[in-house]
Amino acid sequence: METNEPVTRDEASAALASVRDSRRRVAWRGYPAWYWPATGAALGGLSLTIGLSGWRALAATVPVAAALVIIALAAGRARGVCEGWAGGAARQRERIVLYGPAALVILAGAIASKFASWPPVAAAVLLFVLFAGTGLTLSARAARR
Amino acid sequence: MTPPQHIAQAAQPAIADGFDELIHAPVRLRVCAALDTVREIEFGALLTLLDISKSALSKHLSALADAGYLTQRRAVRDTRQRVWLRLTPAGRSAYRGHVAALHRIVGGTDA
After folding, report:
1. Is residue A91 classed as helix, strand or coil in its secondary structure?
2. Start-end of H helices in A51-119
3. At what angle do helices B43-50 and A9-28 cross, to 10 degrees?
């Protein structure tokens, strides 16, 4: 399609649609099956550390955070995609859909544990289900397109 | 990876108001769109993501590399050699300029 003909509005629109499709594919396709449950489990573990205090919180948070980084790096290597430390293919709105509920659960769990007999494990399990479910859904939707 | 002078000149894209004929080819546009959002992508992964043939992808990657829009890095993993691709700053800038030009066309401010 190398041409000196002027590009029509429809052609430009179609080109922009293909740009969006490519971006979406890079953002959501090709994740190994273990990535979403593993990250969900690590985030669940992170929510459990919130109830701890002092050095125990630090001692528990560091390995969980390291696990999250290792999982992300391993997934990137398995996918053959290096997103870098900043940026990434996912749009802000997609990130909010993926991480927003998880962040809310962590926050709600932390607050509830102060005022009610809310077992921290409940928040961890809910977080795991929400994150793994959303990630798997987004990946499956991208694969169908 | 520096291409010979005559190849680089032949592959020099026509650029006007950000619209880039070289990038506008459908496969090359998709390749640039995929590479623009990340640091680098492995050749095999790009092949799967874009769902195109190996020879077609190689041809378009060569055109982009000849224009100085893309670099290739070879790395061995699991005893197999893999090629990692990334946009150069010039390639990223040309791609973004092209997308901006497409938006202007769609928006009716530039045809």
Report:
1. coil
2. 55-79, 92-115
3. 120
- CA A136 to chain B, closest CA, distance in angstroms equals 17
> Hey, of B27, B38, B96, which one would you mutate to test binding to chain A, going by the most A CBs within 10 A of its CB?
B38
pTM equals 0.79
State whether CATH 1.10.10.10 applies to domain B5-101: yes
Domain assignment of residue A108, yes or no:
yes
Residue A33, chain B, CB below 8 Å: the answer is: no
CB contact under 8 A, B82 and A89: no
What pLDDT, in 10s, does the model give residues A85-96?
666 788 888 889
Is the Cβ pair A22, B49 closer than 8 Å? yes
Alpha-carbon span A5 to A90, nearest angstrom:
34
